[in-house]
Each structure stands twice: as C-alpha cells, then as structure tokens.
Amino acid sequence: MPILKISGYEEAKELLNSREEGLSAYLWTQNHKTIMRSINELEVGTIFINKGIVGYIQGYHSGHKTSGLGGEDGIHGIEGYLQKRTIYMNYE
C-alpha cells in the first residue's frame, strides 16, 4: 500500500482528483463541513467516511473516470448513464 505524507485535506484532494482513476476514497474526520466538502469535491464513485471497505448490495457501486463504465446492483443498473456516488459515514 502506498503511503504519502500530506499537509492536509487540500493537498489530499488535489492528489486524488489529479488521478485518472476514481474508484473510492476514504476519509476519517468528525468535522461535518469537511465531510460535506468531500462529498461535493472528491471525484470518485464511492466515499467511505469513518469506516473501511464495507459496501452493501443496495448501494450503487461504480467508479468515476477510468475506474468504471457504469454501475451495478439492483435496479440501479438501468441508470448507467448517470454518474452517481455512494457515501458511507459512521457517526456517533
């Protein structure tokens, strides 16, 4: 697993959005403003917030950019012409 030392959210966003791929992103924070910014600004198909890799069948799973050509699962397959994202957030 590649690990980079970054200065903060802005640098992480720039690195992520500069990639050709856009499958998933992981964000650990309790700051709701940062969570909402990430939902609007990160160019990926799925964002996991405060949790690891656990998706659910009713969720829409797709990548953005070169990471996927559409979605799968349930009734969402027919909506393959739309670009959707799924946000998973653990809050207490």
Give the secondary structure arrangement, pairings included.
Layout: H1 9-17, E1 21-22, E2 24-27, H2 32-41, E3 46-49, E4 64-65, E5 86-89
Explain what you see.
- Strand 2 (24-27), helix 2 (32-41) and strand 3 form a beta-alpha-beta unit.
- The strands form two sheets. The protein has a three-stranded parallel β-sheet, with helices on one face.
- The longest helix has 10 residues, at 32-41.
- The mean pLDDT is 82.
- It is built from two helices and five strands; from the N terminus they run H-E-E-H-E-E-E.
- It is of the alpha/beta class and 92 residues long.
Can you give me a brief rundown of this structure?
This protein has 92 residues and is α/β, with parallel strands linked by helices.
Question: Top keywords for this entry?
Answer:
92 residues, alpha/beta, 3-stranded parallel sheet, 2 helices, 5 strands, 21% helix
Give me the Rg, rounded.
Answer: 13 Å
SS strand fraction = 15-25%
Order of helices and strands: HEEHEEE
Biggest β-sheet strands, sense, barrel: 3 strands, parallel
- Sheet with the most strands: spatial strand order: 2-3-5
Spans of at least 5 consecutive residues with low confidence: none
Oligomer: single chain
Share of helix, binned: 10-25%
Number of domains: 1
> What is the helix tally?
2
Tell me, rounded to a whole number, the average pLDDT. Answer: 82
Kindly report how far apart the N and C termini lie: 29 Å
Shape: globular
Strand elements, count: 5
Q: What class do helices, strands and sheet pairing give?
A: alpha/beta
